[in-house]
Amino acid sequence: MSHCDHLVDVGRRKFLSGAGLAAAGAAAATMVPVHAKAAPGSARVDYPSNRLANIGELKPNEAFNVAYPDADAPGVLLKLGKRVPGGAGPDGDIVGFSTICPHKGFPLNYNGVDKTLNCPGHYSRFDCESGGQQVWGHATQNLPQYMLRIDGKGDIYAEGVDELLYGRLSNVL
Ligand code: FES
């Protein structure tokens, strides 16, 4: 038997054993008693509390690059200069957002003129003064915004995200 034939044979056996498991699972499913209750679904995610920066590091209306809830999830902190939804800090003007477009995952760029995050892929735009609300384009959800906490030393912590990050089944992997 050639090497290639051997691999095909292994693949066939794996497929057949998987089919057997599926059949067994289907048979077991038909035997569940009528009174059985499904376990309640758990949609709750435990987010890490991660220090992203200190207030002193932010410059007004300039994107400060961060990542949350892990290194593979890029985002920004912004000090917008006026109190906004979800804003933290003494002036309620510090916000954080994912910078991965919720449409197809292109990286977003900050435009300080109208305080939006903009997608070079298909031109979706998200208003940073309105909780990341989509104001233009193909995306079908608003931009995920961080829940921020600022301690007495001015350290900024992210402790949650309000929308599903692009490409994930759960924000915390
Ligand atoms: Fe951003 Fe399509 S990837 S609008």
TrEMBL record:
Single GO MF descriptor: 2 iron, 2 sulfur cluster binding
TM stretches of this protein: none
Domain Rieske, first and last residues per copy: 64-157
Keyword Nucleus: no
Record key words, sorted: 2Fe-2S, Iron, Iron-sulfur, Metal-binding, Plasmid
Name of one Pfam family that matches: Rieske
Protein name: Twin-arginine translocation pathway signal
